[in-house]
Amino acid sequence: MARVIVMDLSRHNTVLVGHDRYFVLHTEGRALLVLDRCPHRGGPLSLARRTPDGRRLSCPWHGTKVGVAAVKRTSLPMVRSGDEAVVVLPDGDDEGGEPISVIRKEVLANLPPDAPCAAESAGEAAGAVGAGEVARR
Ligand code: FES
Questions:
Q1: What's the CA gap between 116 and 88, in Å, rounded?
Q2: At a CB cut-off of 8 Å and minimum separation 6, what does 22 contact?
Q3: What pTM value is reported for the model?
Q4: Which 3 state secondary structure label does DSSP give 37?
């Protein structure tokens, strides 16, 4: 039996269904709810950065380049009306008993290819401070 949820895309960008996670990927002017799992060993594609040509996601775990077209094929059926999205979830293994959560988390895969992420910027800043501290001693 199909399960349907309604999510507010202005507040949430991730859906957890049992052990599976889906995130909202913005591509070609569309928002798609896609599987957050790298085909190599399950890394979080939501934390992948786009390659310079924008056509692939570089997995943060081992660097596999996953085509955005392949990621799009994992998308769930979703109908949008403004920020409201009605999503049809996959059938669960245990007759729909899997817990479902809708959350907001950082999604790096939607950043432009050349934009530095906040975490990298903070890390670089922290590294610069650390180097300065060492130099003063
Ligand atoms: S899990 Fe993505 S490259 Fe290994």
A1: 34
A2: 14, 15, 33, 34, 35, 36, 76
A3: 0.81
A4: coil
pLDDT of residue 88: 95
Domains, the chain, ordered by start = 3-111 (2.102.10)
pLDDT for 115 equals 56
Sheet containing 84-89: order of strands: 3-8, 84-89, 78-81
Pairwise CA distance, residues 86 & 83, whole Å: 10
Atom of ligand 1 nearest to the CA of 64: 3
Q: What value does the CA radius of gyration of the chain take, rounded to a whole number of Å?
A: 18
Counting every residue written for the chain, the total comes to 137
The CA 35 to ligand 1 mean position distance, Å, reads 14
Pocket lined around ligand 1, Cβ cut-off 6 Å? 38, 40-43, 59, 61-64
CA atoms within 13 A on the CB side of 16: 9
Residues of the chain with pLDDT under 70: 1, 92-96, 114-137
